[in-house]
Design goal:
This is SMI1/KNR4 family protein. This protein has a single domain, classed as SMI1/KNR4-like (3-Layer(aba) Sandwich), CATH 3.40.1580.10. Strands 5-6-7-8-9 form a five-stranded antiparallel sheet. A two-stranded antiparallel ribbon has the order 1-2. It is built from six helices and nine strands. The protein has 161 residues and is α+β, with helices and mostly antiparallel strands. The N and C termini lie close together (8 Å). It is globular, with a radius of gyration of 16 Å. 30% of the residues lie in helices and 23% in strands.
Length: 161
């Protein structure tokens, strides 16, 4: 278990105002441990950086940024993928392969769990023909893109290898 994450390449420190603006747009309360981390480390890359998803090592590329002009801007990333995400799942980090580490508020509005979302599996209706849609369960396909990581943001950081 890891108790000391070091961050590199973080963007300039933000205030609670930016956090609260995002909470307002998403209509959620972000976890305290995430807020404390994001204020100083948004846009940054952690060390150690590896974590396990169903026994397979993955890489935590960076925390998404609150900087408006960043390619990894948290709100722009969300807006770009939200139609492919189930309701109440929000990205906060990414890996180098274009997948996202997300808060999953579907079971709890107070304590979201952390999931890994594989972008190649995040399907929507327009990805399929009408004939194919008759043969598949789209919700099941979308659920297959989601892999549990941990019960909290704090636990996720502590699990980095």
């Amino acid at each position: 278990m890891n108790n000391c994450v070091k961050w590199s390449y973080a963007d300039e420190k933000i205030s609670m105002k930016e956090i609260m603006e995002l909470e307002s747009v998403w209509e959620v309360k972000l976890p305290k441990a995430y807020v404390e981390c994001a204020i100083c480390n948004h846009g940054g890359s952690p060390e150690p950086e590896e974590f396990l998803v169903k026994g397979r090592k993955r890489v935590f590329g960076c925390l998404l940024s609150y900087c408006k002009n960043s390619l990894d801007n948290i709100l722009e990333v969300y807006n770009g993928i939200k139609e492919r995400l189930p309701h109440n799942i929000f990205p906060f980090g990414c890996d180098p392969a274009g997948n996202y580490i997300c808060f999953d508020y579907r079971k709890s509005q107070d304590n979201p769990c952390i999931i890994f979302w594989e972008h190649e599996l995040g399907a929507i209706e327009s990805d399929y023909t009408q004939e194919k849609l008759k043969r598949i369960d789209l919700k099941e396909v979308q659920e297959n893109a989601i892999k549990p990581i941990s019960c909290s943001f704090k636990e996720f950081l502590e699990s980095l290898l």
